[in-house]
Specification:
Layout lengths: L8 E6 L12 H18 L5 H9 L19 H5 L2 H4 L2 E9 L3 H12 L5 E7 L2 E8 L6 E6 L9 E7 L2 H11 L5 H5 L4 H7 L2 E8 L6 H66 L6 H10 L7 H16 L3 H31 L3 E3 L6 E3 L14 H13 L8 H5 L11 H7 L3 H13 L2 E5 L6 E5 H6 L2 E3 L8 E3 L18 H11 L2 E2 L6 E2 L7 E3 L7 E4 L5 E4 L3 H11 L12
Antiparallel strand pairs: 1-6, 2-7, 3-4, 3-7, 4-5, 5-6, 8-9, 10-11, 12-13, 14-15, 16-17, 17-18
Helix pairs in contact: 5-6, 9-12, 10-11, 11-12
């Protein structure tokens, strides 16, 4: 076939798109069925008969027919489909790979599949699309088969197969089918998580679970599928019964609400005379009204019976009610007041006991307030998210650890730092907390290493910065060294200098050596006269080793003889024994 010659071939099955069935989101089901059917064909046709295998693949039009049996609009995940006995018996999951829909990621996935010992299929998911790509292991060359149940410009009439022997062409096809998300879309603040979802793919890699099942194996698969259907039907029946029971309870509650509404209306009609009496008593000058007003102004509890009788008489006089009806109205008013007070108390108690939720600004989930952390910046973060942030920064040895939300705010120049108390409360392990303590200590101290005892100990950072000489603080070590040059020096010894001039001057005074008075070159006399000549280039200085004075600076012999003769008229030219 031309495929084995390196040419790409596209096979389209008109009218076989997944959208022709009753389910419009069955691309995952079609891709998994493609992997199953192709796995069975590979077992039927050996790798030596690659041409027969390719012909069988390109003539197989019933791959997508399984979608006609799926009538739901619910999008099926690969993990859910793989648990069906039909696929669980025939396919074995070996790996899952995640990454962006770019050529580099697709190439790595296909190269990994080439390292497997048998043919393999990767089910690539980028919601809401799912496609499949199979590598058929051949004796001479491998063949890449891409299955797509969605109509595309290359195969607009239905599902399509793309076959070739080049991994570069396969990667190019996968990239064109599932291109990366638009960069402008990724930058939109309101669509960040949706855009990120479009910019990532998952690849579930499957290999064959063995040769196609015989009749006995197919019967076992049918039995397991039937049992699964029966379990689902039992669950549906249970949910139906529960729904009917809840509907009946809802009808009962609606009747109770209606009864309470009717009682409230009746109670309001009973209370109307009392409300009218209360409003009319403010302008009436009758003796009964005066009694009610006087009682409101401070009458004690003992006067309530007489007031009760007076109100009953007023009700009877004003509204033509008998004493029994007046008493019932007052009792109903008092009962209403008591119930109203009780209901208010219950509402306050319930409001106080209700759990308050908050939305975590990182995971966007609604959680109880008890699961939040207290930050000075007032950002609402759950304990799980802040713990993951703290642990990752501790592993990276980053200090101080800043609030993750503050770090994303462009104009926030002073992000809030995580406190040590929060690190203790959030629940890090002992190793991580030891790292935290070391980092926290490092902002106030410096690790000092002693070259003599070969030990290290933290010292105060401010004292270390101000000190010129460093002293080992360990009690059994008194080593002292210069911070600048790291050279040791002795207590009560000569003053230290990093270039050694101070120590050299001390040694020369101790040994009686002299400096050249012109260029300051150290000179040691090991014998002879006290007339010294500096050997430094271009110095030409002659001086006396006894008194250290400059005799002459010249290269002329006559000048030197005259100056030396003049100087040693008053100074010793030689040291004599015994003097």
């Amino acid at each position: 076939m031309d495929i084995l010659q390196g040419r790409e071939r596209i096979v389209s099955y008109p009218g076989t798109s997944q959208f022709n069935g009753r389910g419009i989101s069955a691309c995952g089901l079609a891709a998994m069925n493609f992997a199953r059917v192709l796995s069975d064909l590979i077992h039927i046709h050996s790798s030596d008969r690659m041409i027969d295998l390719l012909r069988a693949i390109t003539s197989k039009e019933d791959i997508i027919s399984i979608c006609s049996g799926w009538s739901s609009d619910l999008h099926l995940d690969v993990e859910e489909i793989q648990q069906v006995p039909l696929f669980e018996k025939s396919l074995k999951h070996v790996s899952t790979r995640f990454g962006p829909p770019r050529a580099k990621h697709f190439r790595r996935t296909l190269e990994y599949m080439q390292t497997l010992s048998s043919s393999a299929t990767v089910i690539i998911t980028r919601p809401p699309e799912i496609i499949a790509c199979t590598i058929i292991k051949g004796s001479e060359t491998d063949v890449f088969v891409i299955f797509d149940s969605h109509p595309r410009p290359s195969y607009p009439a239905g599902a399509g197969l793309i076959l070739n022997t080049s991994i570069d062409k396969a990667v190019s096809r996968l990239t064109s089918i599932l291109p990366p998300a638009d960069s402008h879309l990724l930058s939109l603040s309101g669509l960040q998580w949706q855009a990120q979802l479009l910019n990532n793919v998952s690849g579930h890699i499957f290999v064959s679970n063995g040769p196609p099942a015989d009749m006995r194996g197919m019967q076992q698969t049918v039995v397991e599928s039937s049992l699964a259907v029966l379990r689902l039907r039992a669950e549906v029946a249970g949910l139906t019964q529960k729904n009917e029971r809840l509907a009946k309870e809802n009808e009962t509650l609606e009747g109770e609400v209606q009864r309470l509404d009717d009682a409230l209306i009746v109670g309001s009609s009973w209370l109307a005379p009392l409300n009218f009496l209360s409003s009319s008593s403010s302008s009436s000058s009758s003796s009964s009204s005066d009694k009610i007003i006087n009682n409101d102004c401070g009458r004690d509890a003992d006067t309530w019976p007489s007031l009760y009788d007076t109100v009953k008489e007023d009700l009877g006089h004003e509204w033509g009610l008998d004493s029994l009806s007046s008493a019932a109205a007052l009792e109903l008013q008092q009962s209403f007041d008591r119930e109203d007070l009780q209901l208010r108390d219950q509402m306050q108690t319930l409001a106080a006991s209700l759990p308050h939720n908050f939305s975590c600004v990182i995971c966007m989930e609604e959680q109880p307030v008890d699961n939040s952390v207290n930050l000075e910046c007032k950002h609402s973060i759950c304990r799980t998210c802040i713990r993951g942030h703290i642990c990752s920064k501790i592993e990276e040895h980053r200090f101080p650890i800043l609030c993750p939300v503050c770090m994303t705010e462009k104009n926030n120049r002073q992000p809030e730092a995580i406190s040590g108390l929060l690190v203790q409360q959030i629940g890090v392990d002992e190793r991580q907390y030891a790292i935290w303590e070391d980092m926290e200590l490092s902002q106030l101290s410096v690790l000092l290493h002693c070259r003599k005892c070969q030990r290290s100990v933290p010292v105060d950072k401010q004292e270390h910065d101000e000190a010129r000489m460093l002293v080992c603080p360990l009690p059994d070590c008194n080593h002292i060294w210069c911070k600048a040059c790291q050279q040791s020096f002795t207590i009560n010894g000569p003053p230290h200098s990093c270039d050694g001039t101070s120590e050299l001057d001390h040694l020369m005074k101790q040994r009686g050596w002299k400096y050249c008075p012109n260029c300051k070159t150290p000179v040691q006399r090991d014998g002879g006269c006290s007339h010294m000549t500096c050997i430094s280039p271009a110095c030409n200085t002659h001086f006396c080793y006894i008194c250290g004075q400059n005799i002459v600076r010249s290269a002329l012999r006559s000048d030197i003889q005259t100056a030396v003769a003049a100087h040693y008229r008053v100074c010793k030219l030689f040291d004599y024994p015994g003097e």
